[in-house]
Amino acid sequence: MKRILITGGAGFVGSHLCERLLNEGNEVICLDNYFTGSKKNIEHLMDHRYFELVRHDVINPYMIEVDEIYNMACPASPVHYQYNPIKTIKTSVMGAINMLGLAKRVGAKILQASTSEVYGDPAVHPQPETYWGNVNPIGLRSCYDEGKRCAETLFMDYHIQNEVKIKIIRIFNTYGPNMNPNDGRVVSNFIVQALQGKDITIFGEGTQTRSFQYVDDLVEGTIRMMNSRDGFTGPVNIGNPVEFTMLELAENVIKLTNSKSKLVYMPLPQDDPLQRQPIIDLAKKELNGWEPKVHLEEGLKKTIGYFDDLLQNR
Ligand code: NAD
Ligand code: UDP
What we know:
The protein has 9 helices and 13 strands. It is α/β, with parallel strands linked by helices. A 7-stranded parallel β-sheet has the order 3-2-1-4-5-6-11, with helices on both faces. Strands 7-10 form a two-stranded parallel sheet. Helix 4 links the parallel strand 5 and strand 6. Helix 3 runs parallel beside helix 4, helix 5 packs parallel to helix 7 and helix 7 crosses helix 9. The longest helix has 22 residues. The termini are far apart. InterPro entries: NAD(P)-bd_dom, NAD(P)-bd_dom_sf, UXS-like.
């Protein structure tokens, strides 16, 4: 049995990780400040004898004896990370320093949830880990993109200078149950709009592309990365290479919900990347042949079911 700290454990991805690692027989400490996460995501775990919940902000140091740390704390939706940009960059940078300091003191292995956003609006397509990115350092998205880039630097420096055992994953767009219905990301927006019969908000012309993975595939890749061979630090892309436009996504959601919603077109947000698709050869090689298993339609059906229940029981 390992003792595992998950920062941001009450959020969308963190809550799935808490559940999976508990089910595998570990002791899990979930740390969160509830900025975008919610106790509801983890309330079914509260009675588990090996689950603990701590209200704490990662910009402040935290002391605990653990074997592993999954550093997931950070708002991930553009609406939320732009709400208080200074707090967002503090969360990534000071959060990384505090968690790396903890890992160094107690000899824990630590995994960083980095992001495809480190590639910015990519001039190389699809994106391999060797691509350094095309990021605006002073734009609306910079607090997130540059915060995550700085966190990657800190992880590598603690590894090189202090021999901290680190793992870095670059997560591409992920969706699934426990997403916050108000968090402004495209999958939750489209599904909630379709279920409520409201207009589906397409930003720009809807021709921009993304590659979405279902949360179970991400959790599998994340845990495999934590358990990967000593000395393999990453960064490694974890995402689904199947790429589609936002218009295609809207059409899929409308079909699967039998919705009468209409499409409306709104301005494209500043610095919105035009395209994004991971190359996952490194993950396949280093993570025992890991690759996404859940097809978009299957994942969307599960996510629609989740939001349907949530909206009816509100
Ligand atoms: P989320 O917003 O649902 O979860 C983030 C969690 O972190 C929330 O519970 C929030 O309350 C908590 N948090 C935020 N700031 C904190 C702070 N200062 N101290 C303590 N807790 C704090 O987002 P998510 O989609 O679950 O993302 C989890 C991680 O994965 C994030 O680091 C994100 O950058 C990364 N990521 C996610 C995606 C995606 O598509 N979901 C893509 C790339 C990277
Ligand atoms: N988007 C959209 N309508 C929405 C929300 C988002 O068309 O209601 C677009 C957004 O402009 C972007 C894509 O969907 O091109 C993905 O947005 P999201 O915020 O989910 O993730 P990110 O931009 O961080 O990849």
